[in-house]
Amino acid sequence: xxxxxxxxxxxxxxxxxxxxxxxxxxxxxxxxxxxxxxxxxxxxxxxxxxxxxxxxxxxxxxxxxxxxxxxxxxxxxxxxxxxxxxxxxxxxxxxxxxxxxxxxxxxxxxxxxxxxxxxxxxxxxxxxxxxxxxxxxxxxxxxxxxxxxxxxxxxxxxxxxxxxxxxxxxxxxxxxxxxxxxxxxxxxxxxxxxxxxxxxxxxxxxxxxxxxxxxxxxxxxxxxxxxxxxxxxxxxxxxxxxxxxxxxxxxxxxxxxxxxxxxxxxxxxxxxxxxxxxxxxxxxxx
Length: 286
Hints:
Layout: E1 8-11, H1 28-41, E2 45-48, H2 65-78, E3 83-86, H3 96-105, E4 109-113, E5 117-119, E6 133-135, H4 139-152, E7 155-160, H5 163-174, E8 183-188, H6 201-206, E9 213-218, H7 224-234, E10 237-240, H8 257-270, H9 278-285
Parallel strand pairs: 1-2, 1-10, 2-3, 3-4, 4-7, 7-8, 8-9, 9-10
Antiparallel strand pairs: 5-6
């Protein structure tokens, strides 16, 4: 029996999902309402990406500090005790726009993309879904983010898209780059990264040093719910949201982040897990 409660995170909106095609929140009001809904369903953390606010531009990201702060202020006003986990993913060596947003938002936690990945996807006919791209996160860029987070008192959440990145995070810890406890997110389901297979979890746990906090980020359709159930059973923390999936365990399309969180909470409880309150989650990530 797992004794510690499960932290449930809701990833509200994602990177490039078109709000004209999918009901993802974009504006401060939409983000706040969606965060409140997720919070009321059991989420103690929201993972936040920021979108451009001009008409017709809501599918594109922004690091404009005033926009980022306005969105987070709205979320905090709607649910004051929720923990903000801010995205920091940016292509290229210049991280200064993200650091400026970190200073404006002052999140308690932020994603740390801990290694590089060829970000690829094929369509059924063998054509690229988008031009092949490198999500570049060399060690010096990772260290730059760690330095900024340490300065601002932000807890890094190390996102690992493949096994090599996970093993690198353990080396970052050994080299003194990361403080203990290390927080790891196993990103599973990206086509060119780790697959969303529950059978992988025991092997991945073997690569973590004792005391590592970990969660699963399952990208995909109804198959990710099998992965979430295994993570809950093995003692992991849990994440869902419109960034990760549009589909409920039944296979039907969700109408909101709250419905996804409600489904994940139900699975965790079926596996005997207590759901962490915001206060309990805050204590665990400190």
